[in-house]
Description:
This protein has two domains: about 50-210 and about 265-360, no CATH class; about 380-524, no CATH class. It has helices at about 1-40, 45-50, 55-80, 80-85, 110-125, 130-145, 155-165, 175-180, 190-210, 215-220, 220-230, 235-240, 245-265, 270-290, 295-300, 310-315, 335-355, 365-370, 410-415, 420-440, 505-510, and strands at about 50-55, 190, 385-390, 400, 445-450, 460, 520-524. It is globular and about 80 Å long. The strands form two sheets. Strands 3, 4, 5, 6 and 7 form a five-stranded antiparallel beta sheet that branches. Strands 1-2 form a two-stranded antiparallel ribbon. Helix 6 (about 130-145) packs antiparallel against helix 7 (about 155-165) and helix 9 (about 190-210) packs antiparallel against helix 13 (about 245-265). It has about 525 residues and is of the alpha+beta class. It has 21 helices and seven strands. It is a multi-pass membrane protein. Its main location: membrane. One of its GO terms (molecular function) is vitamin binding.
Amino acid sequence: MPTTTTTINSTITTMPRTISKSLDATRSTTVHTDTQESKPARRVWPQGLFQSVDIASSALFRICYGAVMMWWSFDFLRLGLVNEYFVRPGYYFSYENFFWIRPLPSVGMPILFGVLTLLALMIAIGLFYRVVTVTHWCGFVYVFLLDQTNYQNHYYLLILIGALLPFMPLNRCWSIDAHLWPALRGNELPRWCLLSLRFHIALPYFFGGIAKLNFDWLSGVTLTQRLNWLISGDSLGSWITTNQLGTALAWSGMLFDLSIVPLLLWKKTRVVAFVLTVLFHVTNHFLFQIHIFPWFMIAATTLFLSPDWPRRFMTNTPGKKNETVSAAMPDSLSWGKRIGLTCLALEMSLQIVLPLRCHFYQQDASWTEVGHRFAWRMMLRSKIGMLQYLVTDPATHETYPLDHTQYLNAQQAGRFPRDPRMIQQFGHFIADEYQQLTGRRPIVRAIAIMSLNGRKPQLLVDPQIDLAKTNNHFTNDNWIVPLREPLRSEPWNVPKEQWLQHVDIPLLKELQLTQASPNSPQDT
């Protein structure tokens, strides 16, 4: 009995320790398990970008992108715009740091556009997709950089999207590549492809709305003036172009741009938002004749719909809309994928910063044009004016006007006088040409008179400054005359022939140049 009692006592004594160890072990296991389960949650963002989504809407976008680009280049050939824009001019307004880019010899440019048309067709049908997308992008960027007066916001958007396409496997579906190489076939693609396309399509909407948050636009004067030009003489014009309606349309446009992306992202309002988008772009097409832009944006906005919508539409199966085909995601990302995501994040960050840079400049971007491009500032300003270059020989001190239109096509002559930097750039060209002919560097001045959004006209650049001596760095702008004229409730309607009577130009009086003389500033 003593032995039995001792054993029982020993067992009772050790029980608390055993239970304690078991609880500690259980607690340790639980903590370990929780830690293991929490890791994927922390990795959802980068790994989730490689989840699979249906490729259907993205593949359809590839087809539309190729078709639109083919339409663009073929139209340039058909309408004779290749020769008009890239062969006939005697001067091209290069982008800063790209002065070395020049058009191909005469027949070279039509051949290039023919090649671009063929390459765009190959993108649409998905033939040799990766090589073709890279080649087409290089050709399109080359054409884009030839002349600033050809700048369009949608060209810039097409460049951004075209740069992404070679990295996206959009030829897995509905492509000749998928038929030639069955290993390529697939109905899925990584989520990051769809999200990055949506991001770039959202840029002109959202930042276009941000840009409209200024007094000139919201007053309705800008839009009213533009509509007056478009519908002048129309019996409907007096009703459509009232300032009240112009103001209503201006506010509606701003609210549309700012709200349409959130409405497209929210499933409950997506279909209604898409219908509004179609109506918006069709209206713009008939009012403003923006060529490919409205139709491209309608096609691109379908990317905000469920990724499998084309497949369900073609098979007439409503089904459940599902953004994700597979919830599986990689446990870790390779260095290549990490570098790729980093580059994409940096590019997206740049696209957010660029449109906002104009708000950090002292002068209005609509007046100086500094920060106006690559910022989705669409329909914000209407400029009309006149420009005359005056060339003074330093040896004889004789001053005479120069007809700049002899070097330019109609589009260049109409657009470049709005931009002080292009006025300066052409001034350098005049000085270089004169020096080459005479051996003397002349003094080049410009009388540029401009009206912004119906304001009273004023000088755009200082006519006393020798443009040939100014540098083209954007921080050196003391030769640009600040915008001083206030916005008017009614647009300035004095005929151009009388403008010189309302703008003080001491230099013009000094040189005895009158508005009736052939030496007077030319219309732009």
